[in-house]
Predict the 3D structure of the following.
Amino acid sequence: MTDENTAPGQPATVENLLNENRLFPPPEDFKAKALYTDESIYAKALADPSAYWVSHAERLDWFEKWNQVLDWRPPFSRWFVGGKINACYNCLDRHINAGLGDRLAILWEGEPGDEQRLTYNDVFKAVNKFANGLKQLGVKKGDRIAIYMPMVPEAAYAMLACARLGAIHTVVFGGFSVDSLRDRINDAQAKVLITADGGWRRGKVVPLKDTADQAVAGCESIEHVVVIKRTENEILMQDGRDVWYDDLVASASESCAPEPMDSEDILFILYTSGTTGKPKGIIHTTGGYMTGVSATTRMVFDLHDEDIFWCTADVGWITGHSYIVYGPMANAATQVMYEGSPDYPERNRFWKIIEKYKVSKFYTAPTAIRAFMKWGVKWLEGCDLSSLKLLGTVGEPINPEAWIWYHKFIGAEKCPIVDTWWQTETGSIMISPLPGIVATKPGSATRPMPAISAKILNEVGEEIQVGGGFLAIDTPWPSMLRGIWGDEERYKSTYWGRWPDTYFPGDGVKRDSDGYLWLLGRVDDVMLVAGHNISTMEVESALVDHEAVAESAVVGVTDEVKGQAIGAFVILREGFDDSDEIRQQLMKHVAEKIGAIARPKTIIFTHDLPKTRSGKIMRRLLRDVAEGRALGDVTTLADPGVLNSLKEKYSDS
Ligand code: 6R9
């Protein structure tokens, strides 16, 4: 498509994605065993959302039933009003009562190769003891407990122990710095911090307790620090404040009554990773959240009793909360939990784990998939992935190229791919195919889940049927956020300020003529080039489509003539060297794929990109680099060193 034949105001690049129009229907043998195969589920849920959500809430055990399904006073919702429920009880006691105590809950593997195979009975005992230990430290319902842990089973125990007592957990990702940890503890006014001496990452100890000590020095609210022994590195234990987990639980009883929580009592606060601005403490409550995560885990991953589920996220992110701890465990799933990095000791660690534990449902992020592509298929050699039945992705738009690679090399062309769009704020998956019903398209998250009302609106709030605009959700759902901790105004203005009574997620989206949705990333990442809206993701996708490109990040750079020009940062695949020739080829490739309007003005080759620790590219910082500005807040960055080398390259170009 060229500049000339694009109607003014229309995105210039729709065609790019819509070219990838090949449909992948659910494979017949998958469909034959799938839990959901009846398309009418969508119409039924639309006709009576309340009955739909009740049917899912009823799969949980409630101490007392609700007397009202929904109380909606925009932007505040209350779900299953009057109901009494405990999240931990629903993840453990319920299954043990049903005779499933001996079922494997967690197949845990540490990075050094140590392992634990834990049944629901094992987890139950550990969680009860932990809860009693916390009680001895004075923890009670409503207290905030910060958790700063490596990916060890005790991280899940800690969350479940808090839930059992009705204490509100706030998990801080174990890769965060002193400042990030301190700010979150202070914002939540946490009373206890649960951490470990360290965790293993790429063969090295991440010294969590040292970081925690520095953070807690600036936190008056913290009364105790509970320390799990993992790496046995030397640490300081402060008398009276610090306690070893082993000592705390040594004499604790194995029975601790679960606190009957109001459906709307807070289960946890989780600070958003923040590609923009100061972190927000997102509030989730109990009944609605549990209903949302338990339903979506079962439906989207088509969870069967014999499945081995593996979500590679860290418990420090919402994906770890919803699809490691609460969703799978509410469904009595058996799952793999892995402590370390995908390239340790070699770049085939994930495939070795899939083979060893016979993983059948695998859920990871596009950033990981692009890394695997970059490393090459040689790392798959000798790994048996035949146990896989379904693949999932989350965290970013997945470019069609990566989707096809995942489908072909990991899924052996027999596994449906569920591209799941959701957010910390939404609590559970909102847009995703149901794998036994919906035919997929590479790069499209397809359609909203049943009973989720997602619309596309333009600047002035008019609905768009086919084309691009802002994603909007205009009816409430049970696992929606209930607010921002301590900042009601910010909750209202950030999420509900754009259109009346409608949730604004901050993402761009397009609908094609088949009704499929294509998520385009954060709206802050849309560029305006010579009057045309071009999403960074579309240009990135075109770049990655070239055989030489492993990964790319694109930003709009102020340009006197065009308003914005396109600046691209490119990581080449192994076997390709940067040269002017490749640079010219890539510019041409983008122009051919999307149109001359989208030709990058500059292309910088790099070995790394600035990412949040959950793998999202921080385009805000790349814009700072490209426009020669001082860098904004870099505290959420995984590796701040990346930026310095980029700055040097940019000034050389
Ligand atoms: C679960 C999670 C949320 C933001 C969201 C969007 C992006 C997530 C996506 C996706 C396109 C997908 N995002 N999944 N974009 N397709 N399948 O990642 O939560 O860390 O809060 O991030 O991530 O931009 O708004 P969170």
